[in-house]
Write a structure and sequence with these properties.
By secondary structure, the protein is α+β, with helices and mostly antiparallel strands. It contains two helices and six strands; from the N terminus they run αβαβββββ.
Length: 120
């Protein structure tokens, strides 16, 4: 389950930010997750809750913003929307579509209790 590793990486980012910015409580972690990232959101939520126990983000809400999938079609040279990796180009039907957006996952923001407010 790679979601556990992802949740542990999020914990590291949150803990590093807490040290750098001096906050002691995280209310919410906002993530951007690409539609093509192969991340199972419900599994990530479960792992997130488990790995945040005893940290500054214990009990924090995990919010997810989805980034749509897009790619570049080599034969027709167009930027196209794609719902899944290896989908054909909706313009020409070619399967030579290279994903350009929607494969990422990142911590977008933290909602924290402190004078610093939201941390990106």
């Amino acid at each position: 389950m790679h979601e556990m590793s992802l949740a542990e990486g999020i914990r590291g980012i949150v803990e590093d930010a807490a040290i750098a910015r001096g906050f002691s409580k995280v209310n919410a972690v906002v993530l951007e997750v690409g539609a093509l990232s192969s991340v199972e959101i419900e599994a990530l939520r479960f792992c997130f809750d488990a790995v945040m126990k005893g940290t500054v983000a214990d009990g924090a809400h995990m919010a997810v913003e989805t980034v749509a999938g897009a790619g570049w079609c080599m034969p027709c040279g167009k930027r196209v929307s794609i719902a899944q990796l290896y989908d054909p180009c909706p313009e020409c039907g070619s399967y030579q579509v290279q994903a350009t957006e929607g494969t990422e996952m990142r911590v977008k923001a933290l909602d924290v209790d402190s004078a610093t407010g939201s941390v990106a």
